[in-house]
Design brief:
The chain has 759 residues and is of the alpha+beta class. It has 15 helices and 32 strands. It is elongated and about 120 Å long.
């Protein structure tokens, strides 16, 4: 058998190498495409619409004639039937609670309406419930206003029992204060609003004579038992109104609100001990009138439904005149539920979601913060009188005027997200105006998540901008001098040294920047400013002095090694600036330049700021830009420079008009690759900034970048939660950024290469 010839062997190697390169390139493209698909698959559910399914339908549990509905036929109203006053669902969404106006408490299976347990409240046989409020949704504390003018506090609780085969939930009633009701008014307690904390309960009540009173119950704890008693204070008369739609007291008992049928809202400040009328606002315009008033979860925002089918959100906003009028009630947003009056509202317990029902029997799911109208359901042909949602917001109950109870299952995992909420300004509770805010978590269950990616994107671009502002002049000018003017032996020493810097782990740079550089710059801020100003001037002056030196002195330094002499003045200038910094600060800035900047120039200074990031990340980017740019400049054919010089051009003219133009594709690629690295940098911005997501372009303020935010928060986020998917959306945005800039860089590079290839 003949051995393959040398030519055949070379051809085989060439074809194999070509195929290997092709496979490698395709694999890289496929990997990038798979990353794109994976990120998109995690992000896509954020913008999906919720779904609901009917889970059960039956007559209200606890009635004497309970019927499970098998068709859509509605029963006739009974004139003496028992009416519901409240519904609730336990956390596992297996047991429902119904409270009727005759004091009956019924626990039932939410799937089929089967009775589980039944209690009677200690209100007396001839008494009845005229009004009802939820005191604390988290603990299940409820309050019932009675026909006798009294109020009764009780709590529904659920104990779990685990057997070998199943889990059993035992519902119970508990009376945290006294089993005896407390007197509030002389006549029937027609309406009330309530707010409670660990020390007291504040009550805003309307009696049968239309008097609105304010009453406080102080909590008295017992040292012997865990039970507490309430000590009532004397009531305070506020005003008389014939038709009130809603009475509200916020949970921290700072504000009380009265809304009447004419659309006027009275806001009372409770901070001074006694209620003080601070504002009177018209919340609806005649002939429209309020029909239902309720606090949004957290007790900050007020939801007002009106007769035209609109639902509006209001809350206190800080004014520009805090001495006279510190807060004003303002309408933040509005949505349309139906073209018929809004008659019932309920809130999600852990989110800012709302379920609203109209007189026409339509139910609408919406989310206030993201301003999303999620879903509309034609639930009934008659008015929806009561709504209740499970604590996990995966199931809700709806009772219509005929006494039919519907149970709906909800799949609504990510209502907090919308394009306007992520990229637009949102007016959050307790904020003066709409703003871009990132604040994903809090210690409170009433927290309103803020998922704006604008501050993180701004911080990413800000960090990259200052890093490139520091790195580009040094790297490009260094590459030009090294490739064009430096002596070959010196270039052989300098170029590898700078390229070795690229191997330095960025975590080390971040560690040094955060723990050494940031405090050092803060302590020597005048000296740092002086270096930035005096160093270029000092180098130019030294160059002029060197130029004026006698030829006998200049010949002592070999041609191309002159830059080494600059090391001496650079070190001297830097040392002198740092050495005199404390004296300059004491002399010109009264010993503290940071306070002087804040008081005189209104410029704040954070220790870990964009200046630190520019220096630290600049050192990380410089080797990349320098290496690629230097190779591009050094690779310019020698016949081009030689021809230019032979035609009489100076070295500088040759550099600017020939060398840089020919090397411009490589220089541009170096800059864009460096920018891409700066955008995606994680450890330096994580360790050397305050990680505060603020939008301030000042070089003395910190920032939070997309990559640092992912590194900080992803380990703490629940898998498949909204927060988790938003972080993947941040990664997707970062991926798009780098892909876009690299694509633009390649397009521009190819055009420059084609344009100047004829030189």
């Amino acid at each position: 058998m003949n051995k393959p010839s040398h030519w055949q062997l070379r051809k085989l190697i060439d074809v194999s190498a070509r195929r290997l390169v092709q496979v490698g390139g395709i694999s890289v493209i496929a990997a990038i495409a798979l990353i794109f698909v994976f990120l998109l698959s995690v992000v896509y559910p954020l913008f999906g619409n919720p779904t609901v399914d009917i889970f059960g339908e039956f007559s209200a549990p606890g009635d004497d004639t309970q019927t499970v509905y098998l068709d859509a036929e509605e029963p006739q109203d009974s004139p003496d039937e028992v009416k519901s006053v409240h519904y609730a669902i336990e956390e596992q969404a297996e047991i429902g609670l119904r409270i009727t106006d005759n004091g009956k408490v019924v626990f039932f299976n939410v799937e089929n309406g089967e009775l589980i347990k039944e209690f009677s409240l200690p209100i007396g046989e001839q008494n009845s419930i005229r009004s009802f409020e939820v005191v604390d949704q988290t603990t299940g504390l409820l309050a019932a206003g009675l026909q006798t003018g009294e109020i009764l506090f009780f709590r529904h609780k659920y104990k779990l029992e685990f057997t070998e085969t199943r889990r059993i939930i035992h519902p119970e009633l508990e009376y945290p204060y006294d089993k005896v009701p407390y007197t509030v008014t002389e006549g029937p307690l027609l309406q009330f609003g309530i707010g409670a904390d660990e020390e007291s309960i504040s009550l805003l009540a309307r009696s049968s004579n239309n008097e609105i009173i304010f009453k406080v119950f102080n909590k008295e704890s017992s040292f012997i038992s865990e039970e507490a008693t309430l000590e009532p204070q004397d009531p305070i008369f506020l005003l008389a109104l014939e038709n009130t739609v809603g009475l509200l007291v916020d949970p921290v008992q700072n504000w009380a609100y009265v809304v009447d049928k004419s659309g006027e809202l009275y806001a009372y400040n409770l901070r001074g001990g006694e209620p003080t009328l601070r504002e009177k606002v018209q919340v609806t315009e005649l002939p429209t009138y309020p029909t239902v008033v309720k606090f949004l979860t957290g007790g900050v925002s007020i939801l007002i439904g009106d007769s035209s089918g609109k639902l509006s959100q209001w809350f206190q906003v800080r004014t520009d005149n805090p001495e006279d009028i510190p807060f004003r009630l303002k309408k933040i947003r509005e949505t349309i539920i139906d073209n018929s009056p809004v008659v019932s509202l309920t809130n999600e317990q852990l989110r800012k979601g709302v379920i609203a029902a109209s007189q026409a029997g339509n139910i609408k799911l919406l989310y206030t913060t993201s301003e999303r109208d999620l879903l509309s359901i034609p639930a009934s042909q008659s008015e929806i009188t009561h709504l209740a949602v499970a604590p996990r917001a995966d199931l809700f109950l709806a009772e219509d005027k005929s006494g039919r109870l519907q149970v709906w299952k909800i799949d609504n995992p990510h209502p907090e997200t919308s394009m306007s909420g992520i990229w637009g300004k949102v007016w959050y509770e307790d904020y003066k105006e709409p703003d871009y805010v990132w604040q994903s978590s809090s210690s409170s269950n009433d927290f309103e998540p803020k998922y704006s990616l604008v501050p993180l994107t701004f911080g990413t671009l800000k960090a990259a901008f200052y890093a490139m502002l520091f790195a580009m002049p040094l790297a490009i000018c260094g590459a030009i001098f090294t490739a064009y003017f430096m002596a070959p032996p010196m270039r052989a020493l300098v170029k590898p040294t700078i390229e070795i810097m690229e191997a330095l782990p960025t975590v080390i740079l971040g560690f040094l920047a955060g723990l050494w550089l940031a405090p050092f710059v803060e302590m020597h801020l005048p000296g740092v400013f002086a270096i930035l100003f005096l160093m270029p001037i000092g180098i130019v002056l030294f160059s002029l002095i060197w130029w004026k030196m006698p030829a006998s002195v200049k010949t002592l330094i070999p041609d191309g090694w002159q830059a080494a002499v600059l090391v001496i003045p650079v070190i001297l200038i830097a040392w002198a600036c740092i050495a005199v910094s404390p004296y300059v600060e004491q002399w010109l800035f009264d010993g503290n330049i940071r306070i002087w900047m804040r008081e005189t120039l209104d410029i704040g200074y954070d220790q870990r700021n964009a200046l630190i990031i520019g220096i630290a990340m600049g050192f990380a980017v410089i080797p990349t830009i320098f290496s690629i740019a230097e190779d591009a400049i050094f690779s310019v054919p020698k016949h081009l420079t030689s021809g230019s010089l032979a035609l009489g051009a100076t070295p500088w003219q040759t550099l600017i008009r020939v060398v840089l133009l020919s090397a411009s594709p490589g220089i541009f690629s170096a800059v864009m690759i460096g920018f891409g690295r700066a955008v995606g940098e994680t450890m330096i911005v994580l360790m050397a900034t305050g990680n505060t997501p603020v939008m301030d372009f000042s070089i003395f303020q910190g920032m939070r970048t997309l990559s640092a935010n992912i590194a900080v928060e992803l380990p703490e986020s629940a898998v498949d939660s909204t927060h988790y998917r938003i972080l993947f959306l941040a990664a997707f945005v970062l991926f798009i950024f780098t892909f876009f800039f690299n694509t633009v860089a390649e397009i521009v590079r190819q055009r420059l290469r084609k344009k100047y290839s004829s030189l």
